[in-house]
Design goal:
The protein is α+β, with helices and mostly antiparallel strands. It is built from eight helices and eleven strands.
Length: 330
């Protein structure tokens, strides 16, 4: 059966959208058709390059979720680099999490409506419907329920900027979605085990196990390392990739390139080495949640220093880079 917001959820006005038509399959439980080799090649090309626009992010996230679904993975963690809206001179996000959700909503809407498109057809007059619910009034955390035009088996759910305070609601939604439909957490706000209560790295084990079950299927973030602006990218099923922002001048015009300077394999399970490293690095904030081997600050610093074109930044260059980093967006 098609799932719907649980009793008591406040459902806002639905948004009707036409699902995009494509030729590639969705998942083992959703379609008996597998993507053709041509479709595989096109998908690989789309996710192998660096995303230079919001549309690129949406496309790569969609392809990554589809690929994960085909491999039997239906619990997805997605991290998007959001386009800045409503920024002031003092604060890029004066509206906080609510403003970030406004920026994330159209991106996630596009991702969700494209997911079931493989079973759609050009003459399909039905439209996928998205119902939006607020699951946490304090922070305005939103859940987006999509009823797919292709059938209830293709329904999906995304939650925008969930916090540790919403985990109990997320667990209830997990039961509603079921094991074989797509459940996507977008730009989750937790980092450490203590975010879920407790002290000295201890938190609710049930909550921690629940959130760590969502794998990083698509991830795009900015970080500053030694005065350099870096982006970390992961598109399923590939590794973590690290890109360095490089500025040059061509014919009097500034040119910005993102150069891949290294990769790191995704860690699918907690190894003994990873657990030991976390215990060594634990501090008063508590132990970090499992990050699937995402490149650390030190990993990235080593990649930068080892890059053939590396030149250490001066103090003035670092100050300028910090200002650019604050304003950097797709």
């Amino acid at each position: 059966n098609a799932f719907s917001p649980p009793t008591g959820f406040h459902v806002r006005s639905p948004c009707s959208l036409q699902a995009e038509n494509r030729n590639d399959g969705i998942g083992s439980n959703k379609s008996t058709d597998r993507p053709s080799s041509d479709s595989d090649a096109l998908s690989g090309m789309a996710t192998s390059r660096f995303p230079n626009s919001v549309e690129d992010q949406v496309r790569q996230a969609t392809i990554s979720i589809r690929a994960a679904s085909q491999d039997g993975i239906h619990r997805h963690s997605v991290r998007l680099l959001l386009p800045i809206i409503g920024a002031t001179e003092l604060d890029d996000w004066p509206g906080g999490a609510r403003q970030m959700m406004e920026a994330a909503f159209p991106l996630v809407k596009d991702i969700m409506t494209q997911l079931p498109s493989a079973k759609d057809s050009y003459d399909n007059k039905k439209k996928s419907i998205i119902n939006e619910s607020v699951i946490d009034q304090a922070d305005g955390v939103r859940a987006m329920f999509m009823q797919a035009s292709t059938g209830p088996e293709d329904d999906s759910l995304a939650v925008l900027l969930p916090s540790a305070d919403t985990v109990e609601q997320l667990k209830k939604l997990d039961m509603e979605v079921g094991p074989d439909r797509e459940y996507i957490l977008v730009n989750s706000q937790w980092v450490r085990k203590t975010d879920f209560g407790g002290f000295f790295g201890m938190g609710s084990s049930d909550s921690i196990n629940f959130v760590e079950n969502f794998q990083p299927i698509f991830h795009c973030t900015n970080v500053m390392v030694e005065g350099d602006i870096v982006r970390i990218l992961r598109t399923y099923p590939g590794p973590w990739r690290v890109y360095l922002r490089n500025e040059s001048n061509e014919d009097g015009k500034e040119k910005i390139d993102w150069i891949e300077i290294g990769t790191k394999d995704v860690m699918k399970t907690k190894t003994s080495e990873w657990q030991k490293s976390q215990m060594k690095n634990i501090n008063s904030d508590g132990e970090k949640l499992f990050d699937f081997g995402k490149p650390t600050y030190e990993n990235i610093r080593e990649m930068i220093v080892s890059w053939e074109g590396y030149v250490p930044k001066s103090l003035s260059e670092r100050a300028s880079a910090a200002f650019t980093f604050i304003k950097d967006t797709l």
